[in-house]
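DM between two lab members

TW: hey, do you still have the Noncanonical pyrimidine nucleotidase, YjjG family protein entry open?
JB: yeah, one sec
JB: this one, 226 aa:
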Amino acid sequence: MSSARESRYRVLLVDLDGTVVDYARTENGALRETHRRFFRTGLRAFLRDFHAANEPLWADYRERRIGLAELRLERWARMGAGPRVATAFEEALGRNVVLFPEAREALRRLSRRSRLALVTDGIARVQRAKLRRTRIERFFEHVVIAPEVGLRKPDGALLHHTLSLLEAKPDDALMVGDSPAGDGGCAQEAGVRFCWVNRTGAVPVPGIPVHRTVGNLTNLTNLTAL
Ligand SMILES: [Mg+2]
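TW: and the structure you got?
JB:
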């Protein structure tokens, strides 16, 4: 390891959900709110059924089998609910957003020595609501929300687009994210190194190169001469 090598990462491309936003807590708060308002079934069964409906749809989305417009309705259709519930849940996600405890201070420190861009996928107005509420947009030179530019993770083009906004090259950048399939996949396709934020001690995904692994964003600030 040499500091000369590490100092090439002038640009950090940072994912939002599961990396900066504690998505499990955010989603859980929104689900509880949605359950209280619209469902009479038990909470435990409701949560189980939602995850069973939602997670395969996100895999279908990454693999281009469905779009976001379909996903947002279909996950509730599988729960026997309509568009009104879909919209209420999305609004609740914005209201319930929670950052990981170290995220704000880590972004502040990282933004003093690197150029940061946020690269997120998901429903654009939900992502915008999270940014407004948490006021973290100030740490990023650019915010790229994949569907707003007609792309999705793991498209390498999403990172090329972001790098072009920054006038930077793949070699200058490190993609920081919690998802090997989404973030690691687009980093691999774009020729950008991938820093895996592995908060849960998950096992690596075969075929996705990982340049660095950190347990949280404070660990990232401690990497040599980032
Ligand atoms: Mg993520």
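TW: got it. Confidence is low (pLDDT under 50) at residues 1-6. The first strand starts at residue 11 and ends at 14.
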